[in-house]
Amino acid sequence: MSEKIRKFQAFLKDNETAKGLLLIGIVLLGAVAVWGGIRFALNTEYPILVVSSGSMCRQTACTLPVGALILIRGQDPSTIQKGPPCGQVAVGPGASGGTLGSIIVFRPYLDNPDYLVVHRIRDIIPTSTGNSTILNFKTEGDNFETNPGCDGWNVRPNQIVGVYQYTIPIPYLGNSILAIRDFMGTPQGVLVVVALIVALFALEIIEPSKKGGKAVAEATERTSVEDAPLSQAQHRLPCSGR
Rounded to 5 degrees, what are φ and ψ at 117? Predict the structure, then answer.
């Protein structure tokens, strides 16, 4: 085993690309482990999200602006609170006051699990099914100009990803994530990734050739230095015989 480790270390020493890829792999594994720990601690599959629409942001009272980095926690649906009734202003000028209600992240369409919405709970409607009761949640965005009434869907507990806790105060990070996501979804973004991969392997091909050329030059120089005294001696011998 130790021999294999030594061979691997020697391989990494001579191969800069492999060393870089190993480092990237370690960083990625660490990030996955940290992300898994956060998911477990907050009891949700998406503990941190970036707001990508303005449905929760009025011009006069912005709850969650585009680019906000928000922390989500999974919790018992029975603890979720409702806010003002549908069609009433929740925050800002004209707000009805009272309990604001919980802000949740949910999947309005179960057949499209990647589509998430973050809106405020406006009403909770219990529905009896046999011996159990299922809660149906009505939601609405805080931007009253674009969301003057409740959404058309009924959100059930199995559609809820988590409940909003607070906004992580790191300026520009959320907007940067959105910009990178949008760019990587374009053909130009794909070309950039391909170009970086090609450049990485091109450097690996060029680098050994440089090292080889340098080694040959050093060997030639050492040979010249070692031959120099012998050459000088051969030139001196005829002089000493005269």
Answer: -130, 140
